[in-house]
């Protein structure tokens, strides 16, 4: 083990007393993930500002587009790993702005199905080149293998925490 790696391990264990080496590393990862999430939301808000949506709306709209058919808000929330009430508020705002709509659900009287409108699809389409340019810029200089390894680790941790999502 390299001297710098031993020093980092000792620092983690002293910072997170009582944790195993892996537990300390996981705790550090969780804290870094919180900071990253805040930066991602701010970056998303900045990125989509010119097309009139927020990160939250962008996330819900992308999940609606990805769904193979209109979905209930509860299913949509499970798919993106958020609370139903939060997603309900966002979908209600999208409906009010004409970006999404509710249609009757033949399988349930009260749980309507949500889908994007043509205006919503057009808005989401306008976000695509912005996201591509941003992703390429942020990922520049980091190998795809390294990013994929990180993604695999995050998926494994999400599963261990009881992922409610119906998509991987």
How is this fold's topology laid out?
Blueprint (H helix, E strand, L loop, with lengths): L2 H13 L5 H28 L6 H12 L6 H8 L3 H13 L3 E6 L2 E9 L1 H22 L4 H17 L8
Antiparallel strand pairs: 1-2
Helix pairs in contact: 1-2, 3-5, 3-6, 4-5
How would you characterize this protein structure?
- The longest helix has 28 residues.
- This protein has a single domain, classed as Winged helix-like DNA-binding domain superfamily/Winged helix DNA-binding domain (Arc Repressor Mutant, subunit A, Orthogonal Bundle).
- It has 7 helices and 2 strands, in the order αααααββαα.
- Strands 1-2 form a two-stranded antiparallel ribbon.
Outline of the structure:
Helices cover 67% and strands 9% of the residues.
Key terms for this structure?
168 residues; mainly alpha; Arc Repressor Mutant, subunit A; two-stranded antiparallel ribbon; 2 strands; globular
Q: Please state the overall shape, judged from the principal axes of the Cα atoms.
A: globular
Using the CA coordinates, give the radius of gyration.
20 Å
Beta-strand percent range: 5-15%
Helix residue percentage: 55-70%
Q: Unreliable stretches, pLDDT < 50, 5 or more residues?
A: none
Question: Could you say how many structural domains there are in total?
Answer: 1
> Based on DSSP secondary structure assignment, what is the total number of beta strands?
2
CATH class label: Mainly Alpha
CATH-scheme architecture: Orthogonal Bundle
Mean pLDDT: 90
Spatial arrangement of strands, main beta sheet:
1-2
Contiguous helical run count: 7
Q: Report on the biggest sheet.
A: 2 strands, antiparallel
Helical/strand content category = mainly alpha
CATH superfamily: Winged helix-like DNA-binding domain superfamily/Winged helix DNA-binding domain
- The ordered string of helix (H) and strand (E) elements is HHHHHEEHH
């Amino acid at each position: 083990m390299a001297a710098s790696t031993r020093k980092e391990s000792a620092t983690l264990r002293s910072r997170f007393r009582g944790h195993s080496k892996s537990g300390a590393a996981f705790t550090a990862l969780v804290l870094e993930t919180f900071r990253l999430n805040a930066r991602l939301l701010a970056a998303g808000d900045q990125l989509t500002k010119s097309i009139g949506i927020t990160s939250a709306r962008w996330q819900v709209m992308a999940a609606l587009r990805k769904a193979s058919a209109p979905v209930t808000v509860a299913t949509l929330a499970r798919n993106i790993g958020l609370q139903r009430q939060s997603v309900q508020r966002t979908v209600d705002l999208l409906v009010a702005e004409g970006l999404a709509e509710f249609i009757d659900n033949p399988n349930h009287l009260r749980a309507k199905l949500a889908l994007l409108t043509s205006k919503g699809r057009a808005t989401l389409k306008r976000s695509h080149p912005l996201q591509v340019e941003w992703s390429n810029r942020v990922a520049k200089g980091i190998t795809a293998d390294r990013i994929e390894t990180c993604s695999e680790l995050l998926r494994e941790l999400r599963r261990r925490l009881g992922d409610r999502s119906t998509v991987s």
